[in-house]
Amino acid sequence: QVKLVISGGGSVQPGGSLKLSCAVSGTTISSNTLDWYRQAPGKSREWIGQITKRGTTFYEDVVKGRFSISRDDAVNAAYLQMNALKPEDTAVYYCNFPYDPVSWGQGTQVTVSS
User: Fold this and answer.
1) What confidence tens digit (pLDDT) does each residue in 101-111 have?
2) What distance in Å separates the CA atoms of residue 25 and residue 33, rounded to the nearest whole number?
3) Could you read off the pLDDT of 25-81 as tens digits, one per residue?
4) Residues 6 or more apart from 31 whose CB is under 8 A from it?
5) 64 secondary structure, DSSP code
6) Is the CA virtual torsion 11, 61, 70, 107 positive or negative?
């Protein structure tokens, strides 16, 4: 059974940083393209970035230059490094496979507030 477990959320002041982890089990992360998403209160879930099987990354414009996606094949996990956080980054964050999605789970809450 393929599972994704996301962790690392929390509360941070504007301008701060957080790093989210997406631990993969049941499949090899390097064999999959993986996306990061977020859902702000009252809004629909939005795509924010992707790491392909080859390790190429893509970002939504609103996070480009501030967020960075990486992957550690040795531990079968992906990461979302978030810098220069803004209040509008407040959301529940998720990871998933776009071409063979698994259960979304509860995500991890990121709150950016002074």
Assistant:
1) 898 888 999 99
2) 14
3) 999 999 999 999 999 999 999 999 999 999 999 999 999 999 999 999 999 999 999
4) 53
5) B
6) positive
**From CA 63, how far away is CA 68, in angstroms rounded?**
9
The one-letter amino acid at 73:
D
Structure tokens at 88: 């509008």
90 in Cβ contact with 29 (< 8 Å):
no
Helix (H, G, I), strand (E, B) or coil at 56: coil
Task: Note whether 89 and 41 are within 8 A (CB).
Answer: no
Cβ neighbour number for residue 64 with a 10 Å cutoff: 12
Phi-psi category of residue 36: left, alpha or beta, with phi > 0 → left and psi -120 to 50 → alpha: beta
Predicted confidence band of residue 100 (pLDDT cuts 50, 70, 90): confident
Q: Are 22 and 37 spatial neighbours (Cβ–Cβ below 8 Å)?
A: no
Q: How far is the first Cα of the chain from the last one, in angstroms, to the nearest whole number?
A: 40
